[in-house]
Amino acid sequence: MRFVDAICKKREGGELSDEEIREMIADYVSGAIPDYQMSSMLMAVFFNGMSDRELTSMTLAMRDSGDIVDLSSIPGVKVDKHSTGGVGDKTTLIIGPIVAACGIPVAKMSGRGLGFTGGTVDKWESIPGYETALSMETFFKAVREHGISLVGQSGDLAPADKALYALRDVTGTVESIPLIASSIMSKKLAAGADKIVLDVTVGTGAFMQEYDRAKELAERMVAIGNGAGKETVAMLTDMNEPLGYAIGNNLEVKEAIAMLHGDGPEDLKEICYALAGMMISLAKDGVSYEQGIEMAKEKIADGSAWEKFKEVVGNQGGDLSYIENPEKFPVAPCTSELVAGKSGYISWINTMDFGLAAGMLGAGRAKKDDVIDMSAGIIMKKKLGDQVSEGDVIATLHAGSEEKLETALKHLKSGAYRIEGEKPAPLKLIYEVIR
Hints:
A 4-stranded mixed β-sheet has the order 1-4-5-13, with helices on both faces. A 4-stranded antiparallel β-sheet has the order 6-9-11-7. It is 46% helix and 15% strand. By secondary structure, it is an alpha/beta fold. The protein contains 17 helices and 13 strands.
């Protein structure tokens, strides 16, 4: 079949065969299909969607376009966790040690931040000496000997996704749920875990701000994972305000350290316990989700999660003196305060704006080659539902220069939050579990 015939079939709402999909991905990666034809196919998918079978077939073809991590040499059930992104999300730093402390191997590859969302790798690298670029042999050895290794993505995972995403970015097809789902899951399936937990965020700081679309994305990704033979569970979690109080790399590491000592913010605790509990229940036969949550809490209470955190940091070259004495972390030389202009209750937060402001302060990247200021960021002093009086501090901003502070402060004052006279209803942090 000529590729133009496949385009026409999808344009008319037809289903592509598995063979057509495999050939399409292979030929695009090889250059046999030009961008202009693949652009037409992407637009046809954008308007007509894909069945679960088509979507699983496409995701597997994208997975198979590059390296596939083989974790089979590591004993035990390997469970991966992926978040669709947010602001202040330092959950991997906390969940990884909790799950490993339960005797479950954690072989986790994470990404860097771009735009308004922070990246887990950047947070690890804010710990002096911590090495995120390990060879596969060293990565596997660390998991076998210590039960955990937390690194950056290496190798050439799903190159078809990289090529397709670049094309989607310039053809108006980024927002297609099937294309988003296949993009995320091709990399997750290539990462080699036996089972997958997806943290699909919803709200003003999420990629999917509308609940119905976030749920649809979660359902499609769960269908792909299960269709590929990997038990997959999605949890819809709230991102209508930053998670925890800290936004920015070493600021978030310090908050994660507090959480591992049992002193973290309540919203961060609830989300971490829920995600860790789900991972534990998938890895251990006969353990329910609720029992998994209790096991996660026990690993914080008895200090074993904290010891596992120190173990992974030390094993990957991190300077433990910073972990044991967080006051040693570099502090930004300039600070400023976002203050309430009137009295009332914090009734709404544009979480994305706070993420963007953190980037303006130096905590994130606008371009991939931007250099991050590990000490820059924001500490929230008030969150949704909190009562404020005029002049109260809502957030403290940290940056390397007064100019960056001024830019970020101006951005936040332009409508990043609202104060109203009536206290809003409390947020539901975990909306739904999709199996």
